[in-house]
Amino acid sequence: MTETVEKLLKGEYENHILPFFWIRGEEESVTREYMRAVHSANIGAVCVESRPHPDFAGPQWWHDMDIILDEARKLGMKVWILDDSHFPTGFANGKMSTAPEELCRQCLVYRTVKCPPSGTEMTVNVSECRPATPFVPYNEMEEYDVKNRNKRVFHDDKLLGIIAVRKNGTLPDGIIDLSNNIDKETFSFRVPEGEWTLYVLHLTRNRGARRLLINMTSQRSCRILLDEVHEKFWQHYASDFGKTIAGFFSDEPELGNGHLYETGKPIWKLEDEAWGDDVTKEMEKRLGENWVSFMPLIWDTDIDKNASAKVRLEYMDAVTSLVERNFSEQVGGWCRDHGVQYIGHIIEDENQHFRTGPSLGHYFRGLGGQDMSGIDMIGAQVFPQGEFDAPRRLGRFYHFVLASLAASQAAIDPKKHGNSMCEIFGAVGWKEGVRLEKYLADHCLVRNINHFVPHAFSLTKYPDGDCPPHFYNHGNDPQFKHFGKLMLYMNRVATLLQSGSTVPETAILYSAESDWMGDCMLPENVAEPLARNQIAYDFIPADVFSRPERYNTDLSNGLCVNGRSYKALIIPACEFIAPCVKNALPDLEKNGVKILDANTVSPDTIPCETAKLCIPTVRITPENRDMRVLHVAGDCDIYMFVNEGTKTWHGSADIGSFGECCIYDAWENGLRHIKSEKTANGTRVTFSCEPLHSVIVLSGFKHDASQFLPEPFEGTEIPLNEGWKRSVCRAIDYPRFENEKEISLPDTLAQQMPRFSGLARYEKTVCLKTIPSRAVLVITDAHEGVELFINGISAGVQIVPEYRFEIANLLKEGENSFRIEVATNSERENTPEERCETLSGITGNCSLTIKE
User: Fold this and answer.
1) For residues 491 and 791, what is the distance between their CA atoms, to the nearest angstrom?
2) 656 touches 662 (CB < 8 A)
3) What DSSP string describes 724-767?
4) How far from 159 is each of 51, 125, 179, CA to CA, in Å?
5) How many angstroms separate the CA atoms of 645 and 661, rounded?
6) pTM score, whole prediction
7) How are beta strands 594-597 and 568-571 bridged, if at all?
8) Cβ neighbours of 461 (radius 10 Å)
9) How confident is the model at residue 133 (pLDDT cuts 50, 70, 90)?
């Protein structure tokens, strides 16, 4: 780690960024221009995505890939490939439209028939039971997919079973299997005592919004994706694999039952369940030859809860295990066998990560075969002060669970080697700029996400309305220079954080099994109090107990997963818990692990309970619920502090390290002094942390004076709000500024030019009698990226307030030319005026502080 810091200070870093590179068959000159633009933004890789390309895996596609790879080789870049003709992964480049029926998606669907009173001879018309409940699209997107992307009609629909279920019944008497009658036209059934319902079970492939995607539970079906995409890349570019070609990216693979992007429903509230031949085999193996009779218990909530919980657990365990083995491990194994890596993410939204439908039913299993954990954080899921729940948005999940899922899997899964990935920045609209992007970057970094897929570089004509914002935009992006500086910052911090290992404190049980079986507290309810109190936590799945060899689990002296030891295990409140976890609890407690069950302990009191275990290991004073802390240990200790609140935090932090301390300024790439004093248990460091800024403390790094940046000083403040001349230009026209106007600060550019997006230039002459020994120019607020020029020389780029520039070395006696260039985002030239939200130009005060 000490070596890593030294390399960073010399300007060396590893690339951790691979933005989506959207191609649709553009001209060669455009493709080459964009590859060079990406490289100029301090980025060392791209992830090529057909969005969609008109000739994926055809001659034009390979021609375009030849160009991309040629530029990548010249520039020393890596190339990743999104592994299908268009997202979500699973279309297999259209091959499922002609694939054998048994390899296509299948669903188990039911309908219910209310039985008459007990003692009645009920006549059941079997033919009327076909088909089962029809699939009715519930939004325009789903209706479009059903009409336009599901041209194939399947002919192997079949009635699976007819089961009578008694309300409030118990097994075995509460279920009567009538499936021996399914080949009859009609049959009679004398209703026994009690209130009964018939469940008519039906297997179909003619259901859902995306029927022509691979069946994630089938090994043979998933192999089609490899044959149609991966193998064809191998045929064309085998010599580049493991060199220029780094790997493949799966984007939002899904089981596909239910409705399109349907979230928030537990298994028993879904209209249909994911199925396939392998699921049939698994259910027979798990539940016996009469397994069909138990299937209504997936949905029925009025029968023996324990029996229903067991059936749901066996079903979901079967499905997600098949997904892990037949999809994730198969694709990942192919990639590793061919010298490349496999990455990507599933749909995690609204806690869908442990449910089916648009996701894969289990976060850790769905990504089990990948070489990095992965999430996406687009579409305004995370934003400043967004830690609140609202209709159709579980804000606390996005802030306190999402990134931690990826960080946890990266830490505990031996396959991941500490690598985590986030698809970031996109689908917010043109209002997103570097200010928000800096917040999102720090949000991820302080939660130990170390690889990023910015969304996206779009090669099509500007403005592309497909999930903006985009970057560069054929030279129309006012903030592209500033974006490049942000990429450099992210690469530096990710390089530093990955040089060691995060220090674990508590484990939260990943409650997939509990959610499948019955009512369960959502994970954010226990995660939020920990985060608010700077307590580190990993989510661990029940598989660490049932498959200890997979996770290098050791329970002989506590709870240790892949070398990470936890002092406490926190269990979200639930009706049912996975048997393997329940069986492990006595030994865990016996070996000193504190079990905190939210069924009996309020989540809000958990931080107080962990304090008895000397948790957290980093304590800040005064307490602040918006401060986030990450501790990485290695040759020296790293403590990253991020303020996600609205006010500057001033205080001290007690850290458990005794080494000499300093601050690593990742934006300026230098060191700063920090006030510190030794304590009985380590060191107390005193500092301030502003919103939108990070503070990275190094303990035990041996440094010398030449590596330090100038320190804050007290001096004479000169207000500079008056006498500015402002001119503007669009990014594509830079540096041809026009419309010069005299203004005072703060400026009201957004009101004066409500449709303007671009750069605003502010010019002023400042006279100095002598050259000061120190001088700092401060701009309290601007929107958004700021570059300062003194006497024609750049003093640097800043992207979040307050904007501070050290300029003493650029000043001269007499007249000095001050030029400030502020880059707006692209919202105002792409959005109706009444919908614009962002400000423009310098919206704060400007001053110069000097010391003679």
Assistant:
1) 31
2) no
3) EEEEEE-GGGTT--EEEEEE-SSP-HHHHSTT--SEEEEEEEEE
4) 39, 13, 9
5) 25
6) 0.97
7) parallel
8) 10
9) low
